[in-house]
Amino acid sequence: MSTQTEIPESVPAVADKPNSVKLELSEEEADMIQTLLNDYVLAYRSDRSVDYKPEPVPREKVGQYPYVATPPTPEIINPAYDWINKKWYSKSNGVNFNNIAQTVAVLKTRSNQYDQILNAIQETQNASATQSLGAVKMMKQMSEDQSDIKKLTSSMQSILLSLEGSKATQPEASKADTKPTQPSDK
After folding, report:
1. Residue 16: which region, alpha, beta or left (left: phi > 0; alpha: psi -120 to 50)?
2. Positive or negative: CA dihedral 102, 64, 70, 21
3. What is the mean pLDDT of each run of 10 residues along the chain (186 residues)?
4. Cα(78)–Cα(69) distance, integer angstroms
5. SS3 of 46, please?
6. Of 38, 6, 10, 34, whose CA–CA distance to 22 is shortest?
7. What is the pLDDT of residue 167?
């Protein structure tokens, strides 16, 4: 039994001929082609030896090295796939220089932003350190003042104790001095 299959429009037409082709295939051949069409898809090979090449590939291999699922955009000239960054790029020098210049500009902008952030952080840290140093100096002064107050209190207690001791002995001495004296001339 034979089957007729039409080739899609992707096959280039010969001049003055329609875009379709009629094939007569056996049922086995038609099944084999149908199996191939079901199991294979068009992927884009890009590796060390091939920069870009559309190839039919088993479905399970698409997305794995060296087969990319999506084609490069039309504006990419001489495409190759960057497997690390997962994107197509142009191997032509002009486009690469433009991409490099754009990347450098972006990096400079980010660097300036990071420098500003770093300066702000350093200023904040310096202000915090100055405040902390002031607090430490105040605490040290308070500690020294407290020590001086303790010494002064101790000194005052000693003076008070000695004054109380002298008051206790002084009244007895003054009693002895207050005895009436008898006149000696009588």
Report:
1. left
2. positive
3. 50 59 89 87 92 92 92 89 91 69 89 93 91 91 92 90 77 54 58
4. 18
5. coil
6. 6
7. 75
CB-count burial class (<10 Å; 0-12, 13-18, 19+) for 54: exposed
The pLDDT assigned to 13 comes to 47
Name residue 54's beta-bridge partners.
44
With tokens 């952080």, the residue in question is: 121
pLDDT score of 33: 87
Tokens of 161: 């104790």
* CA gap 44, 52 in Å, rounded: 6
**Per-residue pLDDT at 14:** 47
User: For residue 142, what pLDDT is reported?
Assistant: 92
* Cβ(70)–Cβ(87) below 8 Å: no
**Amino acid identity for residue 143 in this structure:** S
Tell me what pLDDT residue 161 has: 87
List the Cα angle 168/174/176 in 5-degree steps: 115
CA dist., res. 92 & res. 81, Å (int)? 13
Beta-bridge partners for 23: 5
**Is residue 26 classed as helix, strand or coil in its secondary structure?**
strand
- Helices (H), ranges, 17-92: 27-39
CA–CA distance, 26 with 29 (Å, rounded to integer): 5
Q: Which helix (H) or strand (E) holds 58?
A: strand 53-58
Q: How far is CA 14 from CA 17, 19, 32, in A?
A: 5, 8, 27
